[in-house]
Amino acid sequence: MNTREIISAAKYLASIKPAFLLSELCSSLPDDVPPHEVCRALAPHLGALDLTATKTGGDYEIRRKIKTAPYILSGQEKDRIDSFLAARRIPPSLERAVEQYITKKVQKPWDDPVILERLRRAIVAQKAEYWKAAAKKRSLAYTKGYTVLSYLAYHFPVYFMQTEYLMRTLASAGLLRQSMAIVDIGTGPGVVPLAIAGFYSHLDTATATLHTIERSEEHIEALLFLAASFCGDIPRVVIRPPVKADIRDLPDAALPDRIDLLVFSNVLNELDDFTTDQRADLVMKLAERLSPDGSILIVEPAEKENTIRLRSLSRALAGRGLTVHSPCAFLWGTRCDPSRCWSFKTQADIRPTRLMERLAACDEPFRYINIDIKYAYVILRRDTTVQHPYHIPPRSKYSRLSKLHLHLNRRINIIAAKMSQELGDKKTHVFKLCDGTAAKPVYGVLPAYHITPSNEVLIPARYGDIMELHNVLVRYNKAHDAYNLLINRNTRIHPAYQKEGDTEDY
Prior knowledge:
Elements: H1 3-16, E1 19-21, H2 22-28, H3 35-42, E2 51-56, E3 59-64, H4 75-87, H5 92-106, H6 113-136, H7 145-154, H8 156-172, E4 179-185, H9 191-200, E5 207-214, H10 217-230, E6 237-239, E7 243-244, E8 259-265, H11 276-286, E9 290-301, H12 304-319, E10 323-326, E11 345-347, H13 354-359, E12 373-381, E13 411-418, E14 428-434, E15 442-447, E16 466-477, E17 482-486, E18 492-497
Parallel strand pairs: 4-5, 4-8, 5-6, 5-7, 8-9, 15-17
Antiparallel strand pairs: 1-3, 2-3, 9-12, 10-12, 11-12, 13-14, 13-16, 14-15, 16-17, 16-18
Helix pairs in contact: 5-10, 6-7, 8-9, 11-12
């Protein structure tokens, strides 16, 4: 009897009974498997099966969990979060904690000229290593000495704020619960758990337990210091001691039995020795403990190759049974071709930290200022929940983007999601469009002199919004092997689908 058969039997019993005994499960198995073996095999999967086990006499009662409602942000919580994001800087207490940690590690003031110069050299070397790694297709690690300190100085603030925006996205989509078990894989110096703690500090009653996996002692040391300094005043968030392990070979004991949110932030792209299928296998193995209404968040840098890899990975995961919740929409019910999908989200530039400003006080300040937020992401689910449950009706009079070659120099109607922010300028607005069918990139092009009340809604539409475009002219851009949909004064554009209350732009 293997674990898969035990899980299958448990699923069946749970589908016909709200509760059953472990002994019943044992008796339903075709083989004579000892109860203790059944219990040991089933225990790690109870959370993912949405079951609980309670000892009763010499047996265990297995019971279905009652699904919890989404955590809905109140008006005051939204105001606090929006106010924080509008300030565009990491919390002052965390900024001080980073400075204190650098001082502790180097045994000199963080702003000592010698220390600042060493940090500058480490940042320059780190950036050079990043692009070398991308060119040679080998992995990149920030794990030692000044490498970790320069990461805190240069990358940490942007990634912290990026995670805050992503948490706002999850909350707005109704993907958070009153009580969450969150796992961050490859946590580094703790960007994600610290940002999540910061996000929860704006909430009234929600709680979270954060589990982190990290292989580097240097990163773990930084995380423990920063968490102790920053999270003491956030009582409803618990950051468990990090588990020191390599994500390629995680022991079962490294993960909680139930995971409500599984995060991979800027980590899967560094597994350069892994194929897309191997990355997908790794994610699926860890997702075995995802609760039935849990989510997986994968985030990668907005650089072109990383973004395309992410889209290829999300397609592979969809093929293994996960649902792509967002930002992608498959409007014709087909799988996409991600081989040229460069799509990412941007947010307002952050304000530089005091440390960043001190580092930039030199002859080449641009080398040490990192304030722009650009990221590619995907949210996946075990259930069928999607951001926009919209499909183009059959026999509708809209053209698929995969068929644009049949409509060159003609005017057509299409429905597509807006999958970029502004790619053009004030004279000519350009936006990437996708309906889940196109193999070649497609762009909506709107010259400023053609803007009218009937088509201007495309400009402020959010990343991922589904739009109807009527009377657009199809042109082929040979230089970029892409299609342009030209929008003029006679083009009408309006939202094709919008969920009730779906108004935030994050």
